[in-house]
Amino acid sequence: MNRRDLVILLVLVALWLSWPMIYRRFIGPLVGESTAPAKPPVTAAEESREPPALGPEHSAEATGKAAGATAEAASEAAASEIVEKPLPEGRTATIENDFVSVSVSTRGGGIVAVVLKRYPSSLEPDSGPVVLDFSRVPALVYEGLPGASVTDEFAMAVSAGGRGVDLRRELPGGVVLKRRLRLGDDYLIQVRDVFINSGREESGIPACRWQLGAMPRIPAASGGRRYVYLGVDTLFPGGEPVRHWGRKLAGYFKRAARADASGKLPVTIRLCPRRNPIDWIAVKNKYFTQILTPSGGGDGWQLYARRETDPRESDPAYRPRMTQLAAVAAWVEFEACRVPAGESLQREARYYVGPKKYSELAVQGFHQVDIMEFGMWAPVGRILLKTLNFIHDHVWPHNYGLAIMLLTVIIRIIFWPVTHKSTESMRRMQEIQPLISEIREKYKDNTQKQQQELMAVYREHKVNPLGGCLPMLIQIPVFIALFVVLRSAIELRFASFLWIRDLSEPEGLLAGVLPIPLNILPVIMAVTMYWQQKLTPSGGDSQQQKMMAFMPLMMLVLFYNFASGLVLYWTTNQCLMIVQQLHMRRKRTAEPSASRGKRTRSERR
After folding, report:
1. What gap in Å lies between CA 34 and CA 14, rounded to an integer?
2. Hey, is 442 helix, strand or coil?
3. Which residues are within 8 A (CB) of 49 and not within 5 positions of it... i.e. 6 or more apart?
4. Alpha helices (runs of H) in 322-469, residue ranges in sequence order
5. Which candidate in 70, 256, 329, 464 could, as Cys together with 79 as Cys, close a disulfide (CB 3.0–4.6 Å)?
6. Model pLDDT for residues 538-547, shown as the tens digit of each residue
7. Beta strands of 121-242 (E only): which ranges?
8. Could you tell me the residue ranges of all domains in the chain?
9. Running DSSP on this structure, what letter comes out for residue 324?
10. Is the pLDDT of residue 537 over 70?
């Protein structure tokens, strides 16, 4: 490796490691994601309204950590058992639009069910739409507010047009709580609570919490659990990125088990981090989410999780090792405040309940699109997702399998100069391989002289030893971004293609009949990869070639249970590489024999 190649390699590694910082500081603002998140818009009525009389400000400890609850703070969370119980039945009213139907209960004035009309619950034709059941842990119910808990009855009236609900409840101390829920044209609900003190004395509102509904786990269509997960995301003031807590919840269960004398995992766990201000909080499963954004933010947050249990746990000696989550919920906390006599206090929020779809979340702003967890390669992933949806919407027959294949063709065209240069470099390396072997054998006892002679041969033949791998590094971000997009894009949910019923899942053919479900596409991918390797010029030593011979088998094992959409991309990519190499081989065969027979001075030496 000469000095120039070493510099190029070091620059690429440095860019790879520093990309998160570069994206956060420079790329994010250019694509409309400011590092300091903007607050939700304030209406003219809000600007003219006198600020409510609030309680004491945040403690010095909390304000000193206003950038958000860190992992260390969450690790000190207190764990306690809580149980989801069937709630007393109350009257319900339904507000709906073309996208969603929301059931509001008089019990606590909360949301007990949400029907997502445009998303079927399963592959069966008569399965009906997805229903998010919050009946055991309703959304938007107060916890810790006397007189307005989940067991208290509200007076309720549906507004004209079926898009809104008004609720009313008298609280202790002469305060009346009026709640108004308004459903927009999509998945967003505007929430407004007004605490009215019509008495002659000042009244207090204790510290309380707004809760999000318990988010259930959506089973995979194939019956497996791959990429089926639950999560909780938060955004804190101060320009911090969105924090994702889903992967840490299992650790909290295990930490609670270590603290218990019996050593058993609790069934449910409630995490109460040190109080920190929060801009919004979200709970989600693989495809759907709830996001609660209080106007002006909240004063704290809490998490709740319930894990799946195993029948074997009835045996006192059994100790489960894995924690598969079954449901998650969250709370936004508000500090105690005072309402002067004859005045009111207003609390507003935006509540999104719907799909984790980029086009829907992007219009919400406020970094809420980051719950999709595209990671450091988010700009590339968003471009790929937009292109995929554009192809699907504008190319007949509007099939996502075809859209993935056409997207692969576009990517190959964009990277054609890179891959062509890489292939040519490997071909030239193969042509001079006998000469390289001769030099290595001749100077095997003199490493310095061997390197000098090899560099002289590379210069004479105009061969870059890194030419076969350096250009390929440029394509790694594209593959990673596409991997993240295709594994969780709701657009691929239940999208069929040929024999594949769901591009977001493995094929799962003959599941329940064979010990391991049959996935045909990964086998085709491995075969095409083996064929492509046979056509690719090999310039490495024999040991490297033997290692590469095992790559198709390794990729088969790795990709066997991947989403079919991703395997389809990789298989299409391999087929295009085969076509490219066959074309180059045919072109070389047509070259005049004289030009192929030329020998350089080093070869004639």
Report:
1. 24
2. helix
3. 346
4. 358-362, 378-394, 400-414, 416-431, 433-442, 447-461
5. 256
6. 655 555 566 6
7. 129-133, 142-143, 155-158, 164-170, 175-183, 188-197, 203-205, 208-216, 231-235
8. 1-35, 44-363, 392-415+475-596
9. -
10. no
Length, in residues, of the chain: 605
Alpha carbon distance 434, 431 (integer Å): 7
pLDDT one-digit tens code per residue, 210-258: 999 998 877 665 544 444 478 999 999 988 889 998 878 877 888 887 7
Question: d(Cα 184, Cα 203) in Å, to the nearest integer?
Answer: 34
> With b meaning 16 or more CB within 10 Å and e meaning fewer, what string describes 353-387?
bbbbbbebbeebebbbbbbbbbebbbbbbbebbee
Rounded-to-integer distance, Cα 359 and Cα 118, Å:
15
Average pLDDT over residues 322-326: 80
Structure token pair of residue 591: 């070259």
Q: Which residue has the tokens 């040991």?
A: 543
Question: In the chain, pLDDT over 90 holds for what percent of residues?
Answer: 36
Q: Which of 584, 573, 575 is nearest to 423 (CA)?
A: 584
Q: What is the average pLDDT score of the chain?
A: 79
Q: What is the DSSP string of 12-57?
A: HHHHHHHHHHHIIIIIHHHTT--SSPPPPPPPHHHHHSPPP-B-PP
Contact by Cβ (8 Å): 217, 327: yes
Distance CA 403, CA 497 (A): 10
Half-sphere exposure of 421 (CA within 13 A, CB side): 14
Q: Which CATH architecture has domain 44-363?
A: Distorted Sandwich (2.70)
What is the layout of strands, in order, in the sheet containing 111-120?
92-96, 100-105, 111-120, 129-133
Taking the C-alpha atoms of residue 499 and residue 503, their distance in angstroms, rounded to an integer, is 10
- The pair phi, psi for residue 203, each rounded to 5°, is -125, 150
pLDDT at 365 over 90: no
